[in-house]
Structures are given as C-alpha cells and as structure tokens.
Amino acid sequence: MKLWSGRFKKDTAREMDDFHSSISFDRRLYREDITGSIAHAEGLSECGIITKQEKEKIEEGLLSILEELEEGKLELNTGYEDIHMNIEKILTDRIGETAKKLHTARSRNDQVALDLRMHLKKEIRNIQSDLVRLMKVLIDRAEENLYTIMPGYTHLQPAQPITLGHHLMAYFEMFRRDFERLEDCYHRTNQNPLGSCALAGTTYPLDREISTVILGFDRYTANSLDGVSDRDFALEFLSSSSIIMMHLSRFCEELILWSTNEFGFVEMDDSYSTGSSIMPQKKNPDAAELIRGKTGRIYGNLMGLLTVMKGLPMAYNKDMQEDKEGVFDTIDTVRGCLSIFTPMLSTLKVNKDRMAHAAARGYINATDVADYLAGKGIPFRTAHEITGKLVSHCIEKNLSLQDLPLEEYREFSPVFEMDILERMDPLNCVISRDIPGGPAPRQVQMHINKARMFLEDVSNCSC
Predict the structure, then answer these.
(1) Is 276 assigned a catalytic role?
(2) pLDDT digits (tens, 9 = 90+) for 278-337
(3) Residue 154 domain-assigned (yes or no)
(4) Does 393 participate in catalysis according to the annotation?
(5) Cβ atoms of 397 and 360 closer than 8 Å
(6) Contact indicator for 168, 145 with CB cutoff of 8 Å
(7) 5, 276, 392, 459: which is the annotated catalytic residue?
(8) How many domains does the chain have?
(9) Catalytic member of 155, 271, 277, 462
(10) pLDDT digits (tens, 9 = 90+) for 234-292
(11) Which of 12, 202, 261, 317 is the least crowded, having the fewest Cβ atoms under 10 Å away?
C-alpha cells in the first residue's frame, strides 16, 4: 500500500508505477534525505510537536538506515516510487507508529527541494576542488614555459608572438571565473526550503531557523510558493557547468590541433591517447575529443531543464521530477572530464622547437615593425602601411622580417636603424610587451604569483 493511498479506491496501473517512479535515479539522495529528516525531527521536537523520546527514536532509526545503506546491506524497493517513500517505509517498518509522525509539517515538495539543494551544495564544492587542482597544474605548466615562444592566433591565423606560459594563463582566468560562478551559485543554492511544505507553509509552530542551522544553510527561503517551485539554483548550476565544459572544449580543440603533424606543438601522453584498429601509426587524442563531445550533453541538460520550467504555473508540478537526471548527469560528466583533463595536461609533452619555428614564420612580428616606426615619430597608420609593403616585399623574396637586411628596410623608410634586426627576434617582441596582462615573461610571472595567492586564499576559506 502506498503511503498516500487513502484517497484512492483503485491501485495505480503497473505501467503508471514504472512511469511515475523516480527511485532509479533519486536513490543517490539518500544521505541528504536522511540528514534532512533528522533535522526536521529535531525541529519538531524543539517546537513541542513531537516528544524528545519520539525524536530520539526517529533519529536512531534513520541513522541505522543510513549506516546499512552506506555499507550496502540494505536494498531500496522500486515498488516505492521515490527515495522519500522508501526511507519513510523502512523507518515505519522498524520503529512503528512513531515514524508516521516524521512527516508532520512537511511535504515531499519541500523535502525534495531540500535534498536537491543539499546535494548540489556538496557537489559544487567537489567541482570547485577539481577546478583548483586543474588551476594548480596550469600555473605549474605556465611557469615552466615563461620563455617558450609560440604564435598567438586570431582567425586561426598567426598574429603575434606570445609565450605558452601566457597562453596557459589565459585558461587559468577562464577556470577562475568558473570557480567564482560556482561560488555565486552556491550562495543562492544555500537556502533552506524546509517548512514551505506543499506550497502554503504549515499551521504548526515550526521554527524554520532550527533546521536551517542544523543543516548549515545561510538562511531559509522567504516565500513558501517559491521555496517548493524554484529550480533557478539547478539551472544556474547547469549554466555554470556548461561554461566550464565550453572552456574545457576550447582547450581540448587547441590541444587536438596542436597534436597534429601539421602543428606538432604538443604530444599527448600514451596514458591519455588511443590507437587505431587498422592504422598502426595512429596516436589519437581521444580523451580530448571525448571531453569536447561531452560538452554537447551538458548543454542539452541545461536546455532540457529550461524547457521543462518555462511554462510551469505555481507551485510544484510533477514536471519538476525531470530536474534530477540532467543535474546528476552533469555532475558526473563535469567531474569525470576534469578528472581526465587535469592529468592529461600535466603529462603533456611540449615541443618547444616546433613552437619557436612556427613563431619565426608568418610575419607575426609585423606589428612590432609598425610600433618601431611609430616610436620614431611616424603616425601609426602610415607606419602600418609601410609595414604592409615590407611584408609584401618579404613574401616576394621568401624572407622573414628578421632575415631582411637593414639596407632593404631602409628602402621603405630611412628611420630604420640596426636595432630593428634585434627587435625582430620573436623573444624580444614578447619581452617588449611588458605591460600588466601582457605576455612579457616578467608580467606572466607576476600573474602566476597572484594566481598562487588566489588558490591559497580559496584553499584557506570554506570554498
């Protein structure tokens, strides 16, 4: 018999039971469901709704269920539609009538909102820890490559010389923003809906502050309708996760390109590569490709929940049961991708010679010629035109700007002096960009130092 069956004269159809049930996926909320129920029992006791002895009996029963579930000694029953009904039924079987008092001043509507918020709080912290591990690897690899010259690109065309260290620290900034977005999401998730009941609160003198403090929430939700119908926190988590995956996908795309024979900038470690069943020479960047591919799944989870929520009237609707599978899949996918990407990056082999060779081609120091002329008093637009003609001349002669003799430079402008040849060295081009946020090794080292301070700060706080 279902715990809500009093109103009904007929059993639900078997196929309806299967269709209606969520225990196959919300079973992972058992810790949160039990912890939330213990806090609720404490609140009921403190407010005199149940006795202290009843509270202790409920708490002991719930803790024994938790212990057996953790040890794998207890099976949940798919005949009870969700994790809430399962726990309540087991508790009732064990301690009898006292268990039936636990659901006083509570609905499954605020119960499931509570469980999901508690679960997301935990998983947000886990993902933040995963991001910290990745950012530490980025910093270390960037510091190793302060002077590793490579082309910077726009439109996937060689643009200006930079260093690999500078490039890697750009991704550090992306993942730092991801960390901070999750921190914002955590604060909006950290609200206790318990006490909202089905939608209109309760007639019992429930002190919502009690469960709020016990469960470690910042505050309780301010409106009972919103408390049970809000899934903004889940949407915000899915959005933040989508941006994390977008950053990982962009990084993976570059690593995939860089590992081709055409680029040859990097080589994936054997541990994070696969081969071909027919072509023995192949070494495929499958880990990076899978992360790039799984990004689409996370986007789909976000779009799915946005679509579920877009037309729902107040307050709770069964549609909202569709929130969990996408959220759970996103948690597992993001954490799985970070757990692979971080060691893949740490073991990546960098071909510094190939990067330097690429930086010596493509006239990526042309802007430095224009800057040189502008520094000699020539208007930048005029300097830009002179440099364009110089590049065209070099292309015709199959020369690089650093190989062009001084006398040929002076054919285009008399202000060129011997120092232009030294200025054209890609390393000197990078060193001269000594401005905060720029690629000069001195500036990148300062960026790294500040990044280490950021990671130290977040490691020392509750984040």
Answers:
(1) yes
(2) 888 889 999 999 999 999 999 999 999 999 999 999 999 999 999 999 999 999 999 999
(3) no
(4) no
(5) no
(6) yes
(7) 276
(8) 3
(9) 155
(10) 999 999 999 999 999 999 999 999 999 999 999 999 999 988 888 888 899 999 999 99
(11) 261
